[in-house]
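I'm stuck. Please check this protein.
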Amino acid sequence: MNPGRWWHRDDDHFACDLCPRACVLAPGQRGFCFVRQATDHGIELTTYGRSSGFCLDPIEKKPLFHFLPGTATLSFGTAGCNLGCKFCQNWEISRAREADRLVEHASPEAIARAAVRSGARSVAFTYNDPVIFAEYAIDVAEACHAVGVAAVAVTAGYISPGAREAFFKPIDAVNVDLKAFTEDFYRRMCYGHLEPVKDTLRWLVHHAKVWTEITTLLIPGENDSDPEIDALCQWVARELGPDVPLHFTAFHPDFKLDRPATPPTTIRRARMHALAAGLRHVYTGNLHDPEGQATRCAACGEVLIARDGYELTRWRLRDGRCPCGTRLPGHFEAMPGSWGSRRMPVRI
């Protein structure tokens, strides 16, 4: 186990200060996330240095469309989660309660070396939420920076204000899973709350140096109504700005939620609502939709990056700009990567 950074003593218990749950634990107890455990001396992280496995993925799978397009990212997660989403599509990992789920042991430096060796431009903390293994994620990110590799977090943004600056400081890009836009959904479907996520998003966009994109998984009958989609899009445009990329992705039945898969028409309709609200870069996911996955210049409409799934089929950027001279928000290299849609397991 590794000493935790965010906790305080509460009489003969210990209170976790990492996320809004603020679990109060007696020695021997674990928090809702299952991986942070109280001892006689404080709260410790039980999964430091342990992973459910490593894999090279396209960065577009995170999804990040405006951060080093076409490159490979070395992805990994641990176990546990601080939300309890009934529709979790990585539930074997995020709801894991057994130590044998964590089959790989790797130091931060070993992960950084593996990223360089495999040609990955970044390491992605994903599959389960990296907030709950924050100490490990921070150390990995710093080790990656030392060898010229970027750090990416895929997170629900459910983190306390007191922990988020330290967690996000070494992160270069983040995709925040904004699960819905009603408190009822968060309470009933995720056992959490909406406002802390909105607060994290505001802070990331306005106070942090982290490239930020947002994903919302649309679930039939739960968070896919026109009024809710409109409210979400208008909030992003008003509070975060029109240049923050927004991804709408299709649900498929998984874990404890038995609903039909999201029709492609729902995803495309949501994209139209977002564009009408003034958002400039809105994408569709989990369906074949080259138009909905193309990046266009907000000024002239030129297709700057065309995609077919995770394959880049067109690249018109020059120094991060459209031929018309308009800068495309994001982080782009002179030439795109050529990783494509491959997924390759990696041993550390």
Observations:
- The helical segments are 91-94, 108-118, 134-146, 161-168, 183-190, 195-207, 226-240, 264-276.
- Residues 50-338 form a domain with the TIM Barrel fold (CATH 3.20.20.70).
- The mean pLDDT is 95.
